[in-house]
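tl;dr need the bound structure. longer version: we got a ligand (heme C) that a collaborator sent over and nobodys looked at where it sits. i said id run it. heres the input, straight from their email, havent touched it
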Amino acid sequence: MIRRSMAYAALLLMGVGTGCKQKSAPSPALKPTAIGAAITESSGGKQVGPTGTALKDPLVVQVNDEQGAAVAGALVDFHGPASVRFEPASVLTDSSGQATTAVVLGTISGRYQLSATTPGKAHAVTLQVAETALGYQQQLGSILADKYCNRCHNPESSAERVSNYDNLEVKPHPFTEGDTLNKISDADLMAIIQHGGPALSRSALMPPYANTLSSAEVQAIIAYVRVVSDPPYRPAGTVYEQK
Ligand code: HEC
């Protein structure tokens, strides 16, 4: 037991060590052979994953010229809060104009604003994306939402789940829809999830979960809903960093 925790400590130290090295060392000397005019997102820009882990998919961006044709050999630098790691942080675009990096989220839950910049002819062009890091409780909520809720609340089907959304006469909202969900208090969310739509004078197509989920589990789902909402959830009475 002791030995195992020591091994973990060593691993942690190694992890922290590499993290620091990456941050302080300048990016390896990449030699760009071209300059683009525009940068767009190809994929991986709106992911959700546990804090401190690598996102499932890489972040892929595309550099094009003024005519919209792919530019190979252009430099792309990825930036984010200090706690986020990019592997690698600087990339040259490949023959299809794409630059790919793996993103390791920081240990604080919430939304991370990341950017990808490429030097343009007159000035650099930048793309902003946002990735969401889930804390332990939010991660549990995400798993529960996938198991119990998303077949109705997510209009998209996945390999594991066929969406029931199109069959519903009253449409529920995807949990990312902050415009609707941010206006519902925690207490009301608790009520509608535990007791079903009629608890908030809404449709009974929203089933009650008081017999299926513990109140801690419902709270975990609420924590998840709050962290993924777009626009972000800003409860009154809390203080946020001024930008
Ligand atoms: C069988 C389909 C179905 C399932 C499964 C389902 N819901 Fe719903 N839900 C609905 C419908 C339909 C509404 C809209 C009710 C209305 O607006 O009258 C709704 C509404 C809601 C609302 C109010 C905000 C909104 O989307 O309009 C919340 C919050 C909610 N559901 C949470 C959950 C949670 C959490 C789960 C899983 C534990 C869940 N729902 C599972 C159908 C479902």
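gonna send this back to them w/ a short note. The chain has five helices and nine strands.
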